[in-house]
Amino acid sequence: MFPDVPIESLPIHFACIATDLISGREIVINQGSLRQAMVASASIPGIFPPIEMDDLLLIDGGASDSIPVQIVKGQGAQYVLAIDVTKSIDKSGELENGLDIIYRTEDIVSYHLTQERLTGVDLLISPNVKDYSWAAVKQIDEIMEEGAIAARQSMEIIQKFLPATKKSDD
User: Fold this and answer.
1) Mean pLDDT of 107-112
2) pLDDT of residue 150
3) According to the model, what pLDDT value does residue 164 have?
4) Which of 14, 36, 48, 165 could form a disulfide with 43 if both were Cys (CB 3.0 to 4.6 A apart)?
5) Nearest partner of 87 among 62, 50, 64, judged by Cα
6) CA distance 109 to 111
7) 3-class DSSP state of 115
8) Which residues 6+ apart lie within 8 Å of 151 measured at CB?
């Protein structure tokens, strides 16, 4: 899905976040292969294997920073638009065994980390997807539609952040 081009050659500044599985550190990837960066940033533990890169063992950036607002600002962003797709912790499924408890604990940790990381966001879009699991691939069309609805509802505000464009008389 992603071309194997150098990140430095992209027309718009790009960076993504991964987590070093060994040190636990958040890693900003803003140079090298775009494809390798995207794969590393999305390597969900237990689903996809970690990616070896520059003596690091990288997994999904969400393990260390679910919404990297401060990283984005540190990369020079004037405004930060974030999309919060964190699962709701208002509802708990059955807690019948240790695995259920581990999953529930992960939902709680992720929720609280995300709330903390949202500090500094200029515009937050929250699609109505809080009851979906990150693995709800069978409902992907519904999830995407909810995202599109939330984006359309936010367009007027988003446009206020965009620089004014000069209209041509042509």
Assistant:
1) 86
2) 95
3) 60
4) 48
5) 62
6) 5
7) helix
8) 125, 158
Q: Confirm if 99 and 140 have CB atoms less than 8 A apart.
A: no
Q: How confident is the model at residue 127 (pLDDT cuts 50, 70, 90)?
A: very high
Residue bearing tokens 């970690």: 50
Q: Left, alpha or beta for 76 (phi > 0: left; psi -120 to 50: alpha)? A: left
- Residue-by-residue DSSP string for 14-72: --EEEEETTT--EEEE-SSBHHHHHHHHT--TTTS--EEETTEEEEEGGGT-SS-HHHH
- The tokens for 119 are 């500090």
Tokens of 147: 């995202």
What tokens were used for 39?
Answer: 């794969």
Residue 58 burial class via C-beta count within 10 angstroms: exposed 0-12, middle 13-18, buried 19 and up: buried
Q: pLDDT for 9-42, tens place per residue? A: 999 889 999 999 999 999 999 999 999 999 999 9
pLDDT at 170: 46
Per-residue pLDDT tens over the stretch 137-161? 899 999 999 999 999 999 999 888 8
Which residues are 6's β-sheet partners?
33
Classify residue 11 by burial, with Cβ atoms within 10 Å: 0-12, 13-18, 19+: exposed
| pTM confidence score | 0.76
Minimal CA–CA distance to 90: which of 119, 131, 135, 126? 131
